Amino acid sequence: MSSTANRNYLASFILDNRGKEETVEQIVEVVKTEIAAVSGTVTSVENVGRKDFARVTDTKFPAASFVQIKFSGPASSPAALKERLRLKHSVYRTLVETA
């Protein structure tokens, strides 16, 4: 396998739009542009919906919207994507796994 081969990933995001004008769809578009910026290609987007947290870390934030995005990209994509989304306050958590 060459180093330029693309791999398939499943990224799960917890979105935080409380107190903001942005909708979930607008935040997903921002995430999709960040995936494209790390040489990724989005294949599908699934809005899982709003879910309650099993363990609440902030009593003012007991639930959030969950989104799963399937994309393909180089092996460096997951780390680069997490780093790019680290300062985006509308993305609360990010989990990227190989699909």
3D architecture notes:
The protein has a single domain, classed as Ribosomal protein S6/Translation elongation factor EF1B (Alpha-Beta Plaits), CATH 3.30.70. 23% of the residues lie in helices and 40% in strands. A 4-stranded antiparallel β-sheet has the order 2-3-1-4, with helices on one face.
Radius of gyration: 14 Å
Secondary structure: helix percent: 10-25%
Number of helices: 2
Biggest sheet layout: 4 strands, antiparallel
Distance between the termini: 17 Å
Mean pLDDT across all residues, rounded?
93
Give a quick precis of the structure.
23% of the residues lie in helices and 40% in strands.
Which helices and strands, and how do they pair?
Layout: E1 7-15, H1 24-37, E2 41-52, E3 63-73, H2 77-85, E4 91-98
Antiparallel strand pairs: 1-3, 1-4, 2-3
List the defining traits of the structure above.
Alpha-Beta Plaits; alpha+beta; 99 residues; elongated
